């Protein structure tokens, strides 16, 4: 394209390349969803339809962006993990974040009616913010994921007790808050059990553990050999591995794999050991 005298303005753009060889997490979060959840009468503490909608939008994002390895969602937030070798958009932070945020938001709005058929959306429409953070080691990345799942647990236990006091106990929000302030996890479990006959352990896993979205390959049996040997990846020509072919096969396999949503522990080693392809 011909140069114009205006083209110098391009030089004002700042580079925002994320560091190479680091895990990238893009976390998005709904804007003002406390108010949004009131407007659409979300059930408290957990509206299952709203969580299913978040999960459906996250699945759509993962389908459109095969570079995403795994995603984890709670409440109005979702974290999407890109492999440390990811080269999408040359690892430009703003490109990665804005593409995820707009793809997610578009699907959230598009799929709304399937989950809330009786309540059409009206302005102000739902929107999400996003940020990219990189983590240099697998340990840092796993600690990040653990941090979000611990947050899910702490918030859900609190919210379950808080809303039981209000919905079953008949107290107002202020008294419920006062009663729970400074309480330990054991106290909340005790309030739920002795006052409301609720065993927190029996609450649905989706509320207690959040949602993990991943590509469904075959699980590795606990204790089995850690290497996943893909026949295609063993192809060689005159003894030289066809790394390009392997890369393409991996890509194809990723694109073909079914995407599933699970509500499981991602803090313990077992989850990662049984799915060695995630962090390899
Ligand atoms: P901000 O714009 O700063 O993120 P926010 O109001 O979205 O403000 P968050 O800390 O993100 O604040 O909290 C999200 C809130 O949305 C929750 O506290 C809860 O009230 C509500 N919410 C989100 N998902 C659900 C759900 N599935 N069921 C019930 N309430 C929900
Ligand atoms: P990238 O993802 O890199 O932005 P792109 O295909 O969107 O790739 P752009 O440089 O952004 O490439 O160009 C957008 C293209 O979309 C245009 O070249 C044109 O082909 C098409 N397009 C956009 N708006 C219109 C329009 N109103 N009418 C016809 N074609 C359009
Ligand atoms: Mg926020
Ligand atoms: Mg929010
Ligand atoms: Mg939030
Ligand atoms: Mg374009």
Average of the residue pLDDT scores = 92
Number of domains: 1
| N→C terminal distance | 42 Å
Shape: globular
Spatial sequence of strands, sheet with the most strands: 4-1-3-2-5-8
SSE-based structural type: alpha+beta
Binding site for Mg(2+) 2: 29, 76
Function: Adds a GMP to the 5'-end of tRNA(His) after transcription and RNase P cleavage.
Binding site for Mg(2+) 1: 29-30, 76
GO molecular function: GTP binding; magnesium ion binding; tRNA guanylyltransferase activity
Structure overview:
The chain has 280 residues and is an alpha+beta fold. 43% of the residues lie in helices and 15% in strands. The two termini are 42 Å apart. The structure holds adenosine-5'-triphosphate (ATP) (2 copies) and magnesium ion (MG) (4 copies). One magnesium ion binds next to loops. The site of one magnesium ion has 4 residues, from loops.
In short:
It contains 9 helices and 8 strands. It has 280 residues and is an alpha+beta fold.
Notable traits:
binds magnesium ion, Alpha-Beta Plaits, alpha+beta, binds adenosine-5'-triphosphate, two-stranded antiparallel ribbon, 280 residues
How do the strands and helices of this protein lay out in sequence?
Layout: E1 23-30, H1 33-39, H2 48-64, E2 68-74, E3 77-82, H3 93-115, E4 128-135, H4 138-167, H5 173-180, H6 185-196, H7 205-209, E5 211-215, E6 236-237, E7 240-241, H8 243-256, E8 259-262, H9 269-273
Antiparallel strand pairs: 1-3, 1-4, 2-3, 2-5, 5-8, 6-7
Helix pairs in contact: 2-3, 4-5, 4-6
Bound molecules: adenosine-5'-triphosphate (2 copies) and magnesium ion (MG) (4 copies).
